[in-house]
Design brief:
cell cycle, cell division, single chain, Rossmann fold, transmembrane helix, 3 domains, nine-stranded mixed sheet, Ubiquitin-like (UB roll), three-stranded mixed sheet, cell inner membrane, alpha/beta
């Protein structure tokens, strides 16, 4: 067989692309490329801050200590990104860094607003060394002028702020039945507790068995202590079966509350 004929056979056996590729597949592929290009263009257009700029921040929730202007200033560095491109997580983090803000929820409101719902910390007590403890036991240090008046005072190691908030609520419920309330709570590193009542009396509970000691105080309050409350400076309950009273001025004549001292 001649060389020319063998060449023609190989040429005849070679694939013909117009037979291998279906024109419909080629059309679908080309259409897909067009759609991808259009999607990329649309995404770029939507992410352009000039397309849908953010025009306003809408504050939600009841604000007592967080100022709306402070929230808007925190949002401002992120607002230039536009409606679609704004980093909602970054906005939330910036708002939650403000004093008194416990939690922030951020959402887009079509077509040009951000909705921000703020939950504030609720103050429970002043911290003696500066700041305030929230009802959730978080130690905050907002501007002093933002602290409300009339709060009780906590004094102790900062690491105990959460424990003190919980103890304050429990003690308050226990004292309420006797018509008493707390104006101050102190603890040392050994967790020895001291109370300041609303009548100015200091109650020394110590560290151990403080619930039993408080009940001993309350059992003696109505008949023994309350009639002389204006003369009592402090009551020390760190005894086995009784307590000691420190008086304002000269002590009155009492039958005595003896007991072996139990240091806590």
């Amino acid at each position: 067989m001649s060389q020319a004929k063998r060449h023609d056979r190989r040429r005849d056996a070679a694939p013909r692309w117009h037979e291998v590729l279906d024109p419909r597949l080629l059309g679908a592929f080309a259409g897909g490329l067009v759609l991808v290009a259009l999607a990329a263009t649309a995404l770029s257009w939507l992410q352009d801050p000039a397309t849908l700029p953010l025009e306003a921040v809408e504050l939600e929730g009841r604000l007592e200590r967080v100022h709306g202007d402070a929230v808007r200033r925190a949002v401002a560095p992120h607002a230039d990104s536009g409606f679609f491109a704004v980093d909602v997580a970054a906005v939330r983090k910036a708002v939650e860094a403000l004093p008194w803000v416990a939690e922030a929820r951020v959402r887009r409101i079509w077509p040009d607003r951000l909705g921000i719902e703020v939950t504030e910390h609720r103050p429970l007590a002043r911290w003696d060394a500066g700041g305030v403890v929230s009802r959730e036991g978080v130690l905050l240090r907002p501007a002093p002028e933002s602290l409300p008046e009339g709060l009780p005072t906590f004094r102790g190691p900062e690491a105990l702020a959460g424990d003190m908030a919980r103890r304050f609520r429990e003690l308050g419920r226990t004292l309420e039945g006797a018509g008493l309330s707390l104006q101050g709570l102190a603890a040392d590193r050994r967790r020895a507790w001291r109370l300041e009542l609303n009548n100015g009396i200091e109650v020394v509970l110590g560290r151990d068995a403080w619930r039993d000691r408080l009940q001993r105080f309350l059992a003696s309050w109505p008949e023994t202590l309350q009639p002389m409350a204006d003369r009592i400076k402090a009551v020390d309950l760190r005894y086995t079966n009784g307590f000691a009273v420190r008086w304002e001025g000269e002590p009155p004549s009492l039958g005595g509350h003896a007991g072996r001292r139990e240091r806590a």
